[in-house]
Amino acid sequence: MAIEEIRNFRLQKLKKLQEAGMNPYADKTERDFSIGEILGKWSEFEGRSGETHIAGRVMALRGQGALIFVDLYDGTGKIQALLKKGDINEKLLTLFEETIDLGDFIEVSGGFLVTKRGEKTIAVKDWKILTKSLHPLPEKWHGLQDVEERYRKRYLDILLNPELKKTIELKAKFWDVIRDFFKTRDFLEVETPTLEFTTGGAEARPFKTHHNDFDTDLYLRISVGELWQKRLMAAGFQKTFEIGRAYRNEGTSQEHIQEFTNLEFYLAYADYRDGMKLVRELYITIAEKVFGKTKFTTRGQMFDLKDEWREIDYTEEIKRQMGINIEKDSEEKIKDKLKELGIEYVGSHKERLIDSLWKHCRKQIGGPAFVINHPTLVAPLAKKLDGKNITQMFQPIIAGSEVGRGYSELNDPIDQKERFEIQEKLIKAGDEEAMMPDFEFVEMLEYGMPPTCGFGFGERLFSLLIDKPLRETQIFPLMKPRGKE
Hints:
The structure is a single chain. Helices cover 34% and strands 24% of the residues. It has 485 residues and is of the alpha+beta class. Strands 6, 10, 11, 14, 15, 16, 17, 18 and 19 form a 9-stranded mixed β-sheet that branches. Strands 1-2-3-5-4 form a 5-stranded mixed beta barrel. A hairpin with a 4-residue loop joins strand 2 and strand 3 (78-84). Helix 7 crosses helix 9 (272-291) and helix 13 packs antiparallel against helix 14 (439-447). The protein starts with a helix and ends in a 19-residue tail after the last helix.
């Protein structure tokens, strides 16, 4: 039967409910308990003959006439409802049979029993409609098969897919554990701007908008307040963190989406070595409290977060895997290597070429590990290491993916200004992902910022630990408007 035909039948049933004096879109319910509460304390309810009110969505209908079985689900649990001739007004029983469909929300009242098959059941004495569904639910056993349709109708996907519901709940716990980790260590949770004149703190193509009142263009942030939190270090705060949304106008892949949640923390009077210790402790805490384990298998790679996190030299690892010395070899030699490996890259200057090489190399690292000693060219906000042309930067690697980035924050205003000027030249040369310079930030550094370690990571860590593509762990993934698929 066509969807429109089904909808017309349901509209007729809606009218029949109205004619019987029922509002098909009720204002409220007299529900006394959630289904989960009843199932959780079943011994207190079994045998109760009074009229307890419960409510939920009709997920299954069996039988007809004198005996109708209904599966009700309210998000906390599922229970069977029994409508039996003699227990309920005959007109109400007939109206139920003639008007109720899968997907409808109803309220029922009655006592509780266990059937001969051991099914926990409410014996219905009365019922009313709460919400009449005009569209049928997808088939129980097949659900939504098309991926795009699943994402577009996520409300149905969640309803019919218990594993997805569990993923969403687990992700909420993931951020709760992280927030608790920092608050118990006396970090102050802060909120920083999401609209910025310059998108400092990361290298990515931003989303652009226009501020009508100021008559100026603004950008949605690409990091969670990096340059703002460092201003707070200069202001006298010693420990801050923020959990918030970031936006990057880039492609979609297993590890990349345009809108996501990130964490960034900043710790004054500390360096990258202090940050590495704290991050390892944080990741182990997340694993234990959210997933109840530290050993994982992700994308076919096994790792244990409690193992020793080995340190990998950025330059030496590229040399070992690729035979390329990024400090000495020419851009042309790097390009030839990328072509030989069939690696697509954007831009032709050395920073982008090196980054493309590294992204290929990191896939071979199972971890857990920290990549260290990045060249200054790829770390414009990190302090140099003992005057060398490498930085005090670290990146955790798990299952071939970067799951964070941190460093001893550069607090030398002269050095920072010079690095921003390099990034400015890259932008003028057409690099859309180069870091926008923020010279007001440089002015802040001239007033003085204490030695500080900063670090950030996002939802990619969660998707890796649960071994699902990043987009699959989003509650409502961004979709193209209908007609533009």
